[in-house]
C-alpha cells in the first residue's frame, strides 16, 4: 500500500486538536483511520457548548473514538493557565497523552500545526510534540504529523494525502454545515482557494518545537476581548520550555 496515502486504515492513530471543527480539515481521514480524537477546548465558554457536542457526533458517525480529553477546558481557561505559568498542569497533559500513545499502540499522531496565530493552536502542537517525544523514548517509530490550519499547504514528499470524493465528500460537506457557527479555518480556505481545496486532505510531517525559534509571533486574537491575550515571550515560551524539558527528562509511566 502507498506509504504516502492518507487513506490507509492499517495504522493505529490519534488526532489531537485545539478546537471543535478542526476535525473537518481531515474528515475523510477521520472516517478511514478512525483515530482516537482529543479536543483540548470546547470553545470560549458555555455559549460554545453546542460546538463540542457536534464534534462528538461527527466523531461517532465517522466510527472514531473520543479520547479522555474532549473539551476539558475553555479557551479562557487555557489562556489563563498559560498566563499564570501553570507548568505542572501542562506537563501532566503531556504525560496523559504519552501514556495513551503507548497503551493504545499508536503508530501515527496528527494534530494542529503551530502557526503563531492562535496560542491555543500552538499550545496543542507543543503538547503533541512533547507527548510524542516522551512516548518515543519507548516507541521510537511513532510518527508525528501536523494539520495546516491557516498556513501554507505546499506539498512535500513526506506528506500523507488523499482526495475526498463521492459519498465521503457529501458526508464531509454535511459535517461542515452542521455547526451552528461557521468554523473559522474552513471559512479561511473557502475564501482563499475555494471549495475544491476541502477535497484535498493533507498531513504534513511535523518539525517539533519549531514555533519556539520564531521571533515574529504577536498574539492579538482575543475573540473581541472575551478571553485574555497571551503574550508569546512572557507566557507561551516559558510553558513551552517546561514541556520540552519534561519530555526530555522523564520516562513515560506506561508499560
Explain this structure.
The longest helix is centred in the C-terminal third of the chain and has 18 residues, at 232-249. The relative contact order is 0.19. The chain has one domain: Rossmann fold, CATH 3.40.50. A 7-stranded mixed beta sheet has the order 3-2-1-4-5-7-6, with helices on both faces. The model has no long low-confidence stretch (mean pLDDT 90). β4, α5 (119-135) and β5 form a beta-alpha-beta unit. It is globular, with a radius of gyration of 17 Å. 40% of the residues lie in helices and 16% in strands. The chain is of the alpha/beta class. It has helices at 27-33, 49-61, 75-83, 87-103, 119-135, 166-177, 184-193, 232-249; strands at 13-17, 36-41, 65-73, 108-112, 143-147, 160-163, 200-205.
In brief:
The chain is an alpha/beta fold and 255 residues long.
Keyphrases for this structure?
255 residues, 40% helix, single chain, seven-stranded mixed sheet, alpha/beta, Rossmann fold, 8 helices, 16% strand
List the helices and strands and how they pair.
Blueprint: E1 13-17, H1 27-33, E2 36-41, H2 49-61, E3 65-73, H3 75-83, H4 87-103, E4 108-112, H5 119-135, E5 143-147, E6 160-163, H6 166-177, H7 184-193, E7 200-205, H8 232-249
Parallel strand pairs: 1-2, 1-4, 2-3, 4-5
Antiparallel strand pairs: 5-7, 6-7
Amino acid at each position: 500500500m502507498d506509504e504516502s496515502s492518507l487513506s490507509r486504515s492499517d495504522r493505529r492513530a490519534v488526532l489531537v486538536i485545539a478546537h471543535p471543527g478542526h476535525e473537518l480539515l481531515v474528515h475523510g481521514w477521520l472516517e478511514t483511520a478512525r483515530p482516537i480524537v482529543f479536543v483540548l477546548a470546547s470553545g470560549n465558554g458555555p455559549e460554545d457548548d453546542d460546538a463540542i457536542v457536534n464534534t462528538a457526533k461527527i466523531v461517532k458517525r465517522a466510527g472514531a473514538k473520543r479520547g479522555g480529553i474532549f473539551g476539558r477546558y475553555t479557551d479562557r481557561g487555557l489562556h489563563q493557565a498559560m498566563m499564570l505559568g501553570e507548568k505542572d498542569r501542562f506537563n501532566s497533559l503531556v504525560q496523559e497523552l504519552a501514556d495513551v500513545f503507548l497503551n493504545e499502540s499508536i503508530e501515527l499522531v496528527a494534530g494542529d500545526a503551530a502557526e503563531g496565530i492562535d496560542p491555543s493552536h500552538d499550545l496543542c502542537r507543543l503538547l503533541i510534540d512533547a507527548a510524542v517525544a516522551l512516548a518515543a523514548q519507548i516507541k521510537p517509530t511513532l510518527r508525528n504529523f501536523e494539520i495546516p490550519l491557516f498556513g501554507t499547504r505546499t506539498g512535500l514528499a513526506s506528506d500523507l494525502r488523499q482526495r475526498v470524493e463521492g459519498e465521503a465528500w457529501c458526508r464531509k460537506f454535511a459535517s461542515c454545515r452542521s455547526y451552528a457557527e461557521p468554523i473559522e479555518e474552513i471559512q479561511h480556505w473557502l475564501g482563499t482557494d475555494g471549495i475544491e481545496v476541502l477535497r484535498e486532505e493533507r498531513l504534513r510531517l511535523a518539525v517539533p518545537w519549531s514555533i519556539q525559534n520564531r521571533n515574529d509571533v504577536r498574539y492579538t486574537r482575543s475573540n473581541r476581548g472575551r478571553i485574555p491575550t497571551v503574550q508569546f515571550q512572557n507566557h507561551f515560551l516559558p510553558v513551552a520550555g517546561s514541556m520540552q524539558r519534561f519530555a526530555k527528562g522523564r520516562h513515560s509511566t506506561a508499560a
